[in-house]
UniProtKB/TrEMBL annotation:
<keyword id="KW-0833">Ubl conjugation pathway</keyword>
<feature type="region of interest" description="Disordered">
    <location>
        <begin position="1"/>
        <end position="86"/>
    </location>
</feature>
<dbReference type="InterPro" id="IPR036047">
    <property type="entry name" value="F-box-like_dom_sf"/>
</dbReference>
<dbReference type="InterPro" id="IPR020472">
    <property type="entry name" value="WD40_PAC1"/>
</dbReference>
<feature type="repeat" description="WD">
    <location>
        <begin position="333"/>
        <end position="372"/>
    </location>
</feature>
<feature type="repeat" description="WD">
    <location>
        <begin position="373"/>
        <end position="412"/>
    </location>
</feature>
<feature type="repeat" description="WD">
    <location>
        <begin position="514"/>
        <end position="536"/>
    </location>
</feature>
<keyword id="KW-0436">Ligase</keyword>
<dbReference type="GO" id="GO:0016874">
    <property type="term" value="F:ligase activity"/>
</dbReference>
<dbReference type="Pfam" id="PF12937">
    <property type="entry name" value="F-box-like"/>
</dbReference>
<feature type="repeat" description="WD">
    <location>
        <begin position="412"/>
        <end position="453"/>
    </location>
</feature>
<dbReference type="InterPro" id="IPR015943">
    <property type="entry name" value="WD40/YVTN_repeat-like_dom_sf"/>
</dbReference>
<feature type="domain" description="F-box">
    <location>
        <begin position="182"/>
        <end position="228"/>
    </location>
</feature>
<feature type="region of interest" description="Disordered">
    <location>
        <begin position="584"/>
        <end position="604"/>
    </location>
</feature>
<dbReference type="InterPro" id="IPR001810">
    <property type="entry name" value="F-box_dom"/>
</dbReference>
<feature type="repeat" description="WD">
    <location>
        <begin position="537"/>
        <end position="576"/>
    </location>
</feature>
<dbReference type="Pfam" id="PF00400">
    <property type="entry name" value="WD40"/>
</dbReference>
Length: 646
């Protein structure tokens, strides 16, 4: 047991039985790897000189000079002799993953090396218990195997496995399972590693940052987060089911207000994803803050907003313009002689429709009325616009298409009751209208003809919205779409001889669906191509006055004083919020059966919520207007509210 030989790991992690003469640098080839193809010059030495005492440190002792008796320890991360030429990065031609000295900083490589050290200690201890002759034989076999080339090693393995019993094979399987784990992310080229990480969801990607510094650096690559944003923003990811709000205009406005030094962000796409993820999480959890806009003397009939301004039209015949961030009234537009029922605005103009039968175009920056359009014989209930075209729906049962450049107006007839809403779909040159007659009509504004009539609601239809749903395969529908209301519904049917149920041109990009709400307390989703009602939303206990929708959710406001948030894809009701409770200084509208007695009025105000007349949705907020003249904003950007009802 006095020999200076022992079982150890070489600098590549190979298990070997070496003497100090074996460790001479000339026994290494020019790649820094111990030769496996050439026989060892000291192979014929006495077997006893290879016996280890099993008590020394499990490290190689390498003489730095043949004439120097001092020795240095070679640790886990040590390299071969300094005169040995360095290897190219990731040299897997001459080295396997476990023994490649160029990736010794890899966490998996370090773990493998530590695992091997522990195993060597255990083996040395077990060998030390054997007779000297058996120790010598074991060391000789290990040394011979380590010096063999790959072909010989495989033959030795085949022979050993073929002669092994089940217990031995089970032992091999258990040992190999842990040893085969590879940190492929660290050793692959950066482009491939980034491509692999880009398939992870957000939570898995964040967890991967905690593995090691190398993984953290790869997972923080801005290209990966750009791909993550592209996959989730303004659409639902088919893999995880999450979608993030767009928030483009709002962020552009805020960026203009920031200082230049604040805009120097290391990973801008990661920050963008993080901000949008927080907003979406607040939408799902129902975390919000509330802000009220009070200034009208009567109920709010319509509202529109952008990232900075809020426009509200009221029974008091005025339009109020509010600063969303400060909550202050910026300007009040006066000119209509009756309630303002309809609003539309863009960056240049504001268009209003009123119960006084007129349409007005305003410069909302200066408050000047630019022009007034007269043509309807009854109240203007709804307007929409695109470029130089305005469409309007009226209580006179008609839809009018106004061409501003040519100063012409076309009238679309077909509805038999008030037209409550009109909506344009510019890409397909189509218009959608809904009426108190319970129908929804689809029009071609190029030919001014009716393409389809949708029947199914049993009450007055108040709102219609064209939608283009991308992920139709995962869209949840009712099991029996032809009987979604208890009546025959869904198919586009003819009511007059001059209305034709036209087959839609597949080359025209029509919306895939339309969404509608009615005073029959329901919200319906329709398939444009088939004309069928494919889903009905139940939940409100009174009529639904208004709806708004984006790519992820639907907002509905009802006469029952509640606002509901529905998931567009599944149709489930995610949250229900109460509107503003009536206060003593609120006045109920005269069309209710109320007396002028103050005590009766106070009794009605007890625990009563104001009916919701209109709603609007944004990326991180939604608005609702009530019959008492107050507009309320639910903001999900910060999400610090306790969800209390006022």
């Amino acid at each position: 047991m006095g020999s200076d030989n022992f079982l150890s790991l070489d600098h590549n992690g190979n298990l070997d039985s070496l003497s100090s003469s074996d460790m001479n640098p000339r026994n290494y080839n020019n790649t820094g790897k111990h030769s496996r193809d050439e026989p060892d010059q000291n192979e014929q030495q006495d077997d006893n000189s290879r016996i280890t005492n099993g008590k020394g440190p499990v490290r190689k002792l390498l003489k730095t000079n043949e004439h120097d008796s001092s020795q240095k320890d070679i640790g886990i991360n040590s390299r071969p002799h300094q005169n040995t030429p360095s290897l190219p990065a990731f040299n897997f031609t001459k080295f396997c993953y476990r023994h490649n000295p160029e990736i010794q900083n890899s966490p998996t490589h370090t773990a493998c090396y530590n695992q091997d050290l522990k195993k060597v200690k255990e083996i040395n201890y077990q060998i030390s218990k054997l007779p000297i002759q058996e120790q010598s034989e074991i060391h000789h076999m290990i040394s011979k195997f380590n010096k063999s080339n790959d072909k010989i090693r495989k033959l030795i393995f085949d022979g050993l496995l073929a002669s092994s019993c089940f217990p031995q094979l089970s032992y091999v399987s258990t040992q190999v399972q842990e040893m085969l784990k590879i940190d492929f992310i660290s050793i692959l080229p950066k482009e491939l590693s980034s491509k692999i990480l880009s398939y992870l969801d957000c939570q898995s990607l964040c967890n991967s940052m905690l593995v090691c510094h190398k993984w953290n650096s790869l997972a923080n690559n801005d290209r990966i987060w750009y791909h993550m944003c592209k996959q989730h923003i303004d659409r639902k990811c088919p893999n995880c089911g999450w979608g993030l709000p767009l928030m483009q205009m709002k962020n552009n406005f805020r960026n203009r207000q920031r200082k230049k030094e604040d805009q120097l962000i290391k990973n801008p796409w990661k920050v963008i994803y993080r901000d949008r993820f927080k907003v979406e999480l607040n939408w799902r959890r129902g975390n919000f803050t509330i802000k009220d806009f009070k200034g009208h003397m009567d109920g709010i009939l319509s509202l529109q907003h952008n990232y900075r301004l809020l426009f509200t039209g009221s029974y008091d015949s005025t339009v109020a313009i509010w600063d969303i961030h400060s909550g202050k009234l910026v300007r009040r537009l006066q000119g209509h002689s009756d309630g303002v029922k309809a609003l539309y605005f863009d960056d240049q103009k504001l268009i209003t429709g009123s119960l006084d039968k007129t349409i007005r175009i305003w410069n909302y920056v200066t408050g000047e009325c630019i022009s007034t359009y007269r043509g309807h014989t009854d109240s203007v209930m709804s307007i929409d616009s695109f470029k130089k075209i305005i469409v309007s729906g009226s209580a006179d049962k008609t839809v009018k298409v106004w061409h501003i450049e040519t100063r012409t107006c076309y009238t679309l007839r077909g509805h038999t009751e008030w037209v409550n809403c009109v909506r344009l779909h510019p890409n397909s040159f189509s218009c959608y209208s809904c009426s108190d007659d319970g129908t929804i009509r689809m029009w071609d504004i190029r030919t001014n003809s009716c393409l389809k009539i949708f029947r199914g609601h049993v009450g007055q239809v108040q709102k219609v919205i064209p939608l283009t749903i991308i992920d139709i395969e995962n869209l949840v529908t009712d099991k029996n779409s032809n009987a979604c209301t208890g009546h025959h519904s869904g198919e586009a049917q003819e009511t007059t001889e001059d209305s034709q149920n036209v087959e839609l041109d597949e080359n025209i990009p029509y919306p895939t669906h339309i969404l509608s709400c009615s005073l029959d307390n329901t919200i319906k989703l329709w398939n444009i191509k088939t004309g069928q009602c494919i889903r009905t939303h139940f939940g409100h206990v009174e009529g639904v006055w208004d709806i708004a929708a984006d790519n992820f959710r639907i907002i509905s406001g009802s006469h029952d004083g509640t606002i509901k948030i529905w998931d567009l894809q599944s149709g489930k009701c995610m949250h229900t919020f109460q509107g503003r409770r009536l206060e003593k200084d609120d006045h109920l509208r005269p069309n209710s059966n109320n007396t002028n007695d103050e005590e009766n009025n106070n009794e009605q105000l007890t625990n009563k919520v104001s009916p919701i007349t209109c709603v609007a949705i944004g990326d991180s907020e939604f608005f609702c207007g009530d019959e008492m003249g107050c507009c309320r904003m639910f903001n999900f950007e910060n999400g610090t509210d306790d969800n209390s009802d006022d």
